Amino acid sequence: MEMEATAGSFPAEQSSALRRIGMPLAAMAVRVVLTSVVASVVISLVLIAWAVRRGDLYTSASDVGYWLGVAGGSLMVVLLIYPLRKRFKALAVLGPLKHWFRFHIVAGIAGPLIVLFHSTFHVGSFNAAIALACMLLVVASGLVGRFIYRKIHHGLYGSRATAADLQRSLEKQVASLHRALFRLPAIERELGRFSALVSLQPQGCWQRGLHFASLGWKRYLAARRVRRAIAGCGTKVGPGDTATTAHLHALAQTIDDTLRAIQRTAQFSTYEKLFSLWHVVHIPFLFLLVVTAIVHVVAVHAY
After folding, report:
1. 243: containing domain
2. Distance between alpha carbon 44 and the CA centroid of its chain, in Å?
């Protein structure tokens, strides 16, 4: 690789490169803080759940347990406003759809969690067991739907993406790399190799499924080979050249983004089909939960 030629192109991009290397570090710091907060909350909930299960704090028949059930059940009822607001234009007076979607996600986690604390993590009757199983089924289905949703939308609350959008984004990513890759042919070959890999159309359902599921791992391996090649370039330039090192780090991040864009573009149509199928499965689960929850509430108050 002709690193002398590459290094000669760096001074004009020094300030930009240094800014770009700072951005991932800032994002990493935010991620560490958020992870620490989430871990603290999860540990606290686990400790409280352990005390609740032992019966040290309350029982499901006590006032605290009863009102926890009311609160959790009410949240799960209110979250049904989102699918109704989505389908009936007359309900537009209730506010923007994106706000209801956010509430739907939060209530879909908080409501079942509160109901679990209401039950004190015990099942006291057959109808309660059925209602609890349906609730956990809906929560699991919702988590799967959230995962697929992010694959075909611009972020968690963004608009629906299209194959054309992804193709334009990919072309833009590749164009931004063109100048650097011209001087780094080994990395250009690796990108071309991964692009050819994701374009394969294996014969047979199981082969296609395995190919689809393994693309993330194959992208990871390709990114590791690219980073190894870039690290070799950095060694040749020398660790003392801060601007050059920053540029190489920024280049590695851009190549990572490009590999992700290639993978996302290749998997997009499959995720669209899975999302349509998920709707067919999730809605009946939701109605089943409503029916079993009503039966449980009636049984509790009647007997």
Report:
1. 163-267
2. 24
